[in-house]
Amino acid sequence: MTERVVLAYSGGLDTSVCIGWIAEETGAEVVAVAVDVGQGGEDLDVIRKRALACGAVEAEVADAKEEFADEYCLPAIKANALYMDRYPLVSALSRPTIVKHLVDAAHKHGATTVAHGCTGKGNDQVRFEAGISSLAPDLKCIAPVRDYAMTRDKAIAFCEDKGLPIATSKKSPYSIDQNVFGRAVETGFLEDIWNGPIEDVYEYTENPATPREADEVIITFEKGVPVALDGKPVSVLQAIQQLNDRAGAHGVGRIDMVEDRLVGIKSREVYESPGGIALITAHQELESVTVERELARFKRQVEQRWSELVYDGLWFSPLKRALDGFIDEASEHVSGDIRMTLHGGRAVVTGRRSQQSLYDFNLATYDSGDTFDQSMSKGFIELFGMSSKIAAKRDLAQ
């Protein structure tokens, strides 16, 4: 029986050429798998037909937008996930979604190998291969661009030689990856980190300097899950999509940073995540009202580690699963409303309310009606500072 390779297929030049390239290099049949995580672009059926026209023996397409929002974006929102305190894991979240479909297709079609179009210097090769090995340790992985030196020039020549139905002339100056949670842009003139991004870089967000009326939105959460906007019920996907439009119209969610890649290099990246940043900002604020102090302090440590694990491609790891359990438990009381103003590139919280609130007006107020017994503070401070006081006496005596 001829061996089969499942290929992560986008419909573009590189992965279309990969179909025939893999067949020539390995002698295997290629099954193309395209996964829609809200990246927009061509119709899935058009992509499926192109894969078959380029030589795939089978082609599968999956509309995974709801799955991506519910099973991957939502955990990131509940984790307030920001790699290096800034990046909302736009690309990192989509990779395990795609991996799951690739592995399912490999099992369905009896494939022994999974292929992807990543280079040898990025994070995605790790995310694909570490994810695949976690779900199916028996599967092998290949990356034609990395393993067989499939450069763009070679890809264009192969395409023209074989007469593949792919446009080879249009070449964006940037490398772009996008999905419903956001958009990542790199390379081109952005590789000089002194160069500022121009407006042409952005697609999900408008220029925040353009004068416009502010937009006020109320986001409702139940146990950390966004369930309504301005009182109207929404799914997680709808919450992201609607806030992409509303926050994006005000330039919210633009990020320009130099990040630490897993492979050891620093890379300049420009991101847009209007819906993601708005939801994470609102979720963080609701937690500040509903989560007990010591739990909140520890959760911030968990959030950083969770973000690093996902960025590093360890979505399916035992530690990531264990941290998910902690985050779900910590989200038990994160229910209520956050009022937010979207304007001038910022999502600013202006109001909070919750039946699970730990904020006690009578304890917090400095006006009449204050129920806080200030006489307790003197003894508390004596005890709280005692160990440092004893150590200071010792140190001063030496």
UniProtKB/TrEMBL annotation:
Entry EC number(s): 6.3.4.5
Top class in the EC scheme: ligase
Signal peptide: none
Entry's Gene Ontology BP terms: argininosuccinate metabolic process; L-arginine biosynthetic process; urea cycle
Residue positions binding ATP: A8, Y9, S10, G11, G12, L13, D14, T15, S16, G117
Annotated keywords: Amino-acid biosynthesis, Arginine biosynthesis, ATP-binding, Cytoplasm, Ligase, Nucleotide-binding
Oligomer and partners: Homotetramer.
The protein, known as: Argininosuccinate synthase
Protein source organism: Streptomyces abyssalis
Phylogenetic lineage: Bacteria, Bacillati, Actinomycetota, Actinomycetes, Kitasatosporales
